[in-house]
Design a protein that fits this description.
about 475 residues; mainly alpha; two-stranded antiparallel ribbon; 19 helices; 4 strands; about 5% strand
Amino acid sequence: MSAQTGQGFIRQLGRWDALAIGFGAMIGFGWVVLTGEWLVAAGTLGAVLAFVVGGVIMALVGLTYAELVAAMPHAGGEHNYVMRAMGSRWAFVASWALVGGYVTIAAFEAVALPRTAAYLWPGLESVELWSVAGSPVYLGWGVIGTAAAVLLTAINVVGIRPASVVQTFIVLFLVIIAILMLVGVGVGGSLEHAEPLVTGGFAGFAAVLVVVPFLFVGFDVIPQSAEEIDLPFPLIGKLIVLSVALASLFYIVMVGASGLAMDHQQLVDSDLATADAMAALWGSQTFGTVLVAGGLAGILTSWNAFLIGGSRLLYAMGRSGMLPAAFGRLHPRFRTPTAALLFIGVLSAAAPWLGADALGWLVDSGSPSIVLGYLLVTVAFLVLHRREPEMDRPLRIGGAGGGGVVIGVIALVLAAGLASLYLPGMPSSLPLEPWVLFGLWWLLGLVLLLRVPPVPGGPDAEEKVVARLEA
């Protein structure tokens, strides 16, 4: 059953739709191409422990989101939480940070899709056009990536309901892949393959842990689309935490099963360790091909979810006057943020023509921004607990006492620790190119930020921002 919110979004998503959007956003393509690197760097046990720790950090951050979305179920998620707690300019910083992450991930998926398809159909790489940053660009890549961007954008413009149906069916396929991998351990797995269980010490562990924000970003797509979910608000919050738990389980199964399927040297020699592991477990290359198809499915679910989440965040910024007004308008018939969707869709359509290396730098530059966004949400959570203790909170994490504050402080400390892993001098610090792109993104953000009038936090902060911009 769907209900319309005035002339705004249409509430038409159920619990499975919302869960598929959040879970699917987190299961992109990294698990297909990077699992071998994780296992070589940290060992099977070390890599699994990194995902356990990373999953706990993300779950704690997710708990703060759960309470906030139940209290403020508005499109744009983080934009609204930070606006109410810390005011207009901090809200811009949080929103701009997450938009940067969302757009770079959507662009990455537009390149990852044809690259993955090339493993199944090598003819896609028969016509090389040019190279960017030393990375070749193929005609087949560009055509498939751009066509997929146009199709996904069109589906989302027509409405979130068709997009969520597509998301749900593809997520079911991913679940089947995980089950096959898990059962395969019993068929062809060996604990001897996993030895040594831990390699690389803390540096190896950190090298895996640092990718967690990139891999888990997406649970916050659920609060981004809160105005379109037709469920009790506390349940929306619980679905956020459940989606993080399920994504953690998925990654742990894939990493652990791959470590039990092949020994260290086989992992080093493998280009697609997860696919080779699936083939080894079942003794058939057909299963490896099925897993690559699962990688294609993961790309589509992640890409689709970030179109949904990114467009709603851009809509919230446009609605509050921080971006051009077109971003804050909905299609008169479909009730979708068309300008925001087209903005992300056009960038995604162009991405396959830029080469894989340049897109890798873009993604790396977006990861610190994502963590910054999460940090600001946890700060907003704590500020609202201190300043507005009587605020209506349909879902109170940690109970009626001070448990919620304790969870918020732990989440803040752990997220800050995660952010520190990107800094120069750390074992897993980012190279120069992503930092240059990071700086350029925030230079543009600074220009836009100076347009935003400084308004303190409060329940009516957004109305004051709009009024001052229109004056």
